[in-house]
Each structure stands twice: as structure tokens, then as C-alpha cells.
């Protein structure tokens, strides 16, 4: 997902080996040749190396030496781009990952809502799958690199997710209740992602996706019972659903169970 | 909720004024008299003062001077009990709050599950209400006092909450799916609590409680459609419900909405 060399493909990702021109080359053994990269390309390369590392190990286990080695550059070069050291690099990598994650949320309108939500979750779960350890570490409180700034980046992603879901529902002026319901679901998806990583990625990504969509529908239905705006949204969502879609399947499996409890109606 | 003197009742909470015996008295003006407290009583008094402060201000805004002043003691005395300074005091106060919170979860068996869950949520929301700022700060990543130890304390409370809910459902060997569903709900309750504090404690505590119970039922129903164990649990929960209870009300409000979408069945 990230451009540039990573731990698993460092040599393949440096195709254009040019002359050794950087002052920090002298300290390396064996000497390596660099392609001349623009400042922006170099920055992206270092961020990609950092993300590769942060994806699979906890931030506290990673040093700037590791980042330099993964990117195939010297440690002074890493410091030249990120003079604030590991914390600055981590925050920049996090910002880059957050942007990538937010791009997952975009989904053109049209068609049943649950299908669109399923496609967003496909991309989101692929991201979680790829960045597993880093994703987990990021959301753990007490990480050594967690600051109010990293917290703000993570909160920004959450807010973007909420806005995308509300827009996907066709809601322009969400009331407090509907917004709270969406935020609760986003939070439960985050929890499910961490549990999923903890449990060796069981169940399968597809099964988790379908279940998360159903959890959203169930939560929305429960909220519709207490909130007129949400009831209106539910009517539109249900009207656009195919009989073979997510909501139809959910109702066919759950309504018989509810029907058994005849004393409750 | 916390024993001992707090900012709002400091003088009333020091009824037995004894002779001034502590060495740090000399530095105070006007001179105060201390009751002789046992080590354990003194420790509790300081934790209570710390919790009182942490409840209403962010940890980074609180100094040991504030804690000393709130408890009506000298700063050296606070350091004598918590030589690790603010971090140690914060962790001890957090541990004490976590114990209190875990006691909220205990609920004797018997009667409809949703009524028991509602009583637990009553106590939990009262706790959130009382400790508002501190509760919020605790759950924000990047707090200056957040460490892996404070993270572990918070995670311990989450785990206890999950176990209590599973026990309340009468489940002894929960499968992965049912456990994940409960963890997702706990997470969404946490999110709802923070939003509730953010939004000036709207809706009312009772309304929020009822809605959270319904969200739990809805999530459990959706999970029952995919998991045999959860379906069995749902049958028992529904069988124990009164017609006028939480599930009955939810079904009466939501089923008509579902009934409108005849093409989905």
C-alpha cells in the first residue's frame, strides 16, 4: 500500500542506482549508491520505511537506525528529514497512514447503503490487516509515542469516518441521537478490529465485514425506535435494499427467533 | 462517592481536630490542626482528594500542591505517601477509581437480563457523571499521565465489564463471536459516555441507559443470526423478559418499521 522500499523489498525498490553523492555515505559499509530523489520523494521513501516498521512492531521497539536500514539510507539522512527524531517521524508516518485510511472511506453514492458500507469496510479491513501491529499500537493508550498530537490525528480519522457514514446515509443535518449512534458503531468497529488482530484474524475478513454491516443495521433500527430522524433514514435504507442483500438476510435469520417470543408483542 | 474530604467539603470532613503534631505544620499559614489518621486512613484521604481533583480537571492541570491544599495537608506529607510524585498518586487514584467502577458491575442473578443490565448502567452512568473530566481524560490517548500501567488498569476494567455481562447472560464458556459482540458493546458504551459528557450530559441518564440496553439487545439479535450459542442466549433472554420490559418496547417500536419493507422478507 505504501510506495517505496520496505523491509521485505528494500533492494527491489531501489531500481535506479545513481552515483553516491550524499555526505553521509562515508559512514556506511558496504558503500551503497543512491538514486537522486527529490526532497518530497525522499520524504515519502522514509515515511514508507517507517510505516513498514510501525506496521509490524510496536513503536517503542523501533529506532531511527531501523528506519535508516529499512530505507537503505544513513541515520543522519533520516535526522536531516526528521530533525525531531523518532517522535516527529512517527507523527508524520501516522499522518500519512491517517490520510490513506480516510481515502478508504470515500464511496460514490447510489445503490443499497449496506453494499456501499460493505465496500468501505473491505478497504478498511484490508488496511487493518496490512498495518496490524502498528494499528494496534496506535490505538492503545499509554504508547510511548502517544501525545496529544497523535491523539488528535486518530480522533480526526474517527470524525472523518462518522461524516462519511452520515453522508452515505444521505443525512445532511444529523441530530444528536443519530450522530451518537454512528459514533458508537465506529467505536465498536475499532474495538472489533483490535480483537480481530488479537485473535489471529478470525473470523475471515468477509465474515467480519458482513457482521459489522449487520451490527450497524441493528443499531440503527434500535435507534429508529427512539428517534424520528433515524426512523426516516431507516425507511430510505430499507427501501433501497435488495431482498438478497444484507438487511434481507439479517431479517430472515433473526425474525424467527423474535417470533418465538410471542409474549413480547 | 469517595470517602474523606474533598474540595467541596474540606472543612466539614475534618471533624476531629486534634493537636498539631506533624513537622510540616510550621510552613502553613494559618496553622491547621490535624486529626491523627492511620497510614491507611491518610492514604485514603489523599486519594480521595486526588480523585476529587482528577474528576473535574485534566491531570496535566493538577499539581501536588493542589492535592495537598484539597486534602488540607502539606505538600511534603503528600510526597511522604507518594514518593513517586504526581504519576504515582495518579496511578493509585486511578486504581482506586477502577476498583469502585468494577464494584458497579456486580449484580445478583435473577429476573429479566435487561433489568439487571439497566441497574448496572445506572451505577456506571452515575460514576461517569460524578467523575466527568477525569473520566474523559483517562480515556483520551496521549494524556500526559497515560502509561502502559494506566492503560493496563483501564483495560482491566473493560475486561471485568465483559466478564460481568457474560456472567449476567448465564454464559460460562463464551465462544469468540459472543465475546466479541459483548466487547464491541462495551466499547460503544465507552464512546457513548464520552460523547454524553461532551454534549452537556444530553440525553438524560435514564434515557441514555434505556437506549444502551436496547443497543445491546439489537447487537445480540444480529449476532444470533450468525452464531448458534448467541441464538441460545437470546432465547433465554427473551423468555425471561416481561411484555412491558425493554425488549418488548423495542420490538413494538421497531417491528412496524421493518414490516413496511415487505420486499425484504
Quaternary arrangement of the chains shown?
homodimer
Number of domains of chain A: 2
Mean pLDDT of chain A: 85
What is the terminal-to-terminal distance of chain A? 51 Å
Extended strand count of chain A: 0
Helix/strand class of chain A = mainly alpha
Q: Main interface pair?
A: A-B, 68 and 67 residues
Beta-strand content estimate of chain A? under 5%
Could you name the ranges of chain A where pLDDT drops below 50 across 5 or more consecutive residues? 1-31
Query: If helices are DSSP runs of H or I spanning 4 or more residues, what is the number of helices of chain A?
Result: 11
String of helices and strands of chain A: HHHHHHHHHHH
Rounded to an integer in angstroms, the radius of gyration calculated over CA atoms of chain A is 23 Å
Q: What is the overall silhouette of chain A?
A: elongated
Q: What is the CATH fold-level name of the largest domain in chain A?
A: Tetracycline Repressor, domain 2
Shape-level CATH architecture of the largest domain in chain A: Orthogonal Bundle
Pfam families (chains A, B): TetR_C_46, TetR_N
GO molecular function, one term (chains A, B): transcription cis-regulatory region binding
Protein name (chains A, B): TetR family transcriptional regulator
Keywords (chains A, B): DNA-binding, Transcription, Transcription regulation
Summarize the structure in words.
The structure is a homodimer of 265-residue chains. With 265 residues, chain A is mainly α. Chain A has two domains: 1-83, Homeodomain-like (Arc Repressor Mutant, subunit A, Orthogonal Bundle); 98-242, Tetracycline Repressor, domain 2 (Orthogonal Bundle). Helices cover 65% and strands 0% of the residues of chain A. Chain A has eleven helices and no strands. In chain A, helix 7 packs across helix 8. Chain A is elongated, with a radius of gyration of 23 Å. Chain A starts with 38 loop residues before the first helix and ends in a 5-residue tail after the last helix. At the A-B interface, helix 7, helix 8, helix 9, helix 10 and helix 11 of A face helix 7, helix 8, helix 9, helix 10 and helix 11 of B. Chains A, B: GO terms for molecular function: DNA-binding transcription factor activity; transcription cis-regulatory region binding. Chains A, B: Residues 40-100 form the HTH tetR-type domain. Chains A, B: Residues 1-20 have a biased composition (Low complexity). Chains A, B: Residues 1-33 are annotated as: Disordered.
